[in-house]
Write a structure and sequence with these properties.
Number of helices: 4
Helix content: 25-40%
Order of helices and strands: HEEEEEEEEHHH
Largest sheet: 5 strands, antiparallel
Shape: globular
Radius of gyration: 29 Å
Number of strands: 8
C-alpha cells in the first residue's frame, strides 16, 4: 500500500506523540511494592488457673531444645490479666512446649506449628500435654519431643483435644 508522503509524515508524528506520552503520565499507577516474606511469627495467649496468672514467667521450647527467650534475654512475664506474647523466628523448630511458671504453679501447653498462634496455658492444656507425653508428665514433654520419644504434630494435638473433650463432656453437661 502506497500512502502519500504527507499521510506518512502525519502518521509518524502521531506515533511519536503517542510514544512520547508513554511513561510520562503522572497519573500512571506506581509499581507495586515488593512483598517481604515474614521472618517471625507470634505466639500469644493467656495463662490462668481459673484466675489469671499475673506475673508468671513464660518459656517456649522448640523440638530441637532451643528455649525462647534465649538464656540471658529478658524474661517474658504475663500481665495482670495473664496475657503474654512472644515473637519467635521462623527458623524455630516446632512443635513447641509453652510453660507458665509462677511460684509453685507450673502449667504447660503445646503449639504444633511455626505460625501465628494463640496458646493459652491452663489446667486443661496441661492435661492435654500430659496425654501427649509418653511419661504422662507434662513437665517432661519438651525433652520427650527433643529425644523423639513422642511425636507431636497438629493431628496428635487435635486428637488429644478431642479425647479431653470427651472425658470432660459429662461434667460439662452436669453443670450446664
Amino acid at each position: 500500500m502506497n500512502l502519500p508522503m504527507v499521510s506518512r509524515t502525519a502518521a509518524s508524528l502521531l506515533l511519536v506523540g503517542l510514544l512520547a506520552g508513554c511513561g510520562s503520565d503522572s497519573t500512571a499507577p506506581a509499581a507495586a511494592p515488593a512483598v517481604v516474606a515474614p521472618t517471625t511469627f507470634t505466639v500469644a495467649g493467656t495463662a490462668a488457673t481459673g484466675a489469671a496468672l499475673d506475673g508468671a514467667t513464660i518459656t517456649i521450647i522448640g523440638s530441637d531444645g532451643t528455649s525462647y527467650p534465649a538464656a540471658g534475654a529478658a524474661p517474658i512475664v504475663t500481665g495482670a490479666d495473664g496475657s503474654y506474647s512472644i515473637v519467635l523466628p521462623l527458623s524455630a523448630k516446632p512443635p513447641f512446649v509453652v510453660t507458665a511458671v509462677k511460684n509453685d504453679v507450673s502449667l504447660v501447653s503445646v503449639v504444633a506449628e511455626a505460625k501465628d498462634s494463640t496458646a493459652n496455658v491452663t489446667p486443661v492444656t496441661n492435661l492435654i500435654a500430659s496425654r501427649l507425653s509418653s511419661s504422662g508428665d507434662p513437665a517432661k514433654l519438651a525433652d520427650e519431643i527433643k529425644n523423639k520419644a513422642v511425636t507431636v504434630d497438629a493431628a496428635a494435638v487435635k486428637a488429644k483435644v478431642a479425647e479431653i473433650i470427651a472425658l470432660i463432656q459429662p461434667l460439662m453437661d452436669a453443670v450446664g
